[in-house]
Design a protein that fits this description.
The protein has 215 residues and is an all-alpha fold. The protein has helices at 3-29, 32-41, 52-67, 83-120, 127-159, 180-214.
């Protein structure tokens, strides 16, 4: 392969990684079933004078704000919020939209790259990159198991430039119904998704190799 072709392939593999990661993020942040299950599992209703149905209405309204670019005001029916709290959720909204942007930008190039690999029978080229890719989530999961508190703080320090995420329950009672354990479950779900997606890509490559050997 020419040097230009090698770099093009590397860029295409990077695009494919970004597509899969942003897709997994999108599925995770919209995985409503995790919160529904955690309401009971974490006894969240003990910290708020609301029914499960009413709490989910507030949750759905929050997610709608985070997902929809045209919604610019966050007003939850049963939770007051400080200016700092609103500012943090607006920062989270920007991350949501950034993730969707990454997915939209990389999706078509990644699909075209996969078709190219399929046509040229070069899917085997994805085996090694995705083997390495599968190792990263395992390392992160180890960090989560050892100490999620520290990981959670580091995550916010990396992705946010202020301390608005440090909610005071007195001024931002929404934090009472968004416990840290819920976010831990979301991270676990994300890493499992990533492992599955990476494994699928790797197995497609291995299946191609096995098929060529049979021929």
């Amino acid at each position: 392969m020419k040097k230009s072709q090698i770099w093009l392939e590397r860029l295409s593999i990077g695009s494919l990684f970004l597509t899969l990661i942003s897709f997994a993020v999108a599925l995770t942040i919209n995985a409503r079933f995790i919160y529904v299950a955690d309401i009971d599992y974490l006894n969240i209703l003990d910290f708020v004078n609301l029914s499960k149905e009413r709490l989910l209405e507030n949750y759905d309204q929050l997610i709608a704000f985070l997902n929809r670019p045209w919604v610019t005001e966050l007003n939850l029916p049963d939770f007051t919020m400080s200016e700092g709290g609103k500012a943090h959720f607006y920062d989270v909204k920007k991350l949501f939209l950034f993730d969707y942007g990454v997915f939209l930008v990389t999706f078509i190039p990644s699909i075209l790259f996969c078709f190219h690999l399929r046509k040229k029978r070069r899917f085997w080229r994805l085996i090694r990159p995705f083997q390495w890719g599968m190792a990263a989530p395992v390392a992160f999961l180890s960090l989560l198991v050892i100490g999620f508190d520290r990981f959670f703080i580091m995550f916010h320090q990396i992705f946010f430039t202020n301390d608005d995420w440090m909610f005071d329950p007195a001024t931002d009672p929404i934090i009472n119904v968004l416990p840290e354990q819920y976010f831990m479950h979301c991270f676990f779900f994300f890493f499992i998704l990533i492992e599955v997606l990476f494994l699928i890509m790797m197995m497609i490559g291995k299946k191609e190799v096995q098929g060529d050997r049979i021929r």
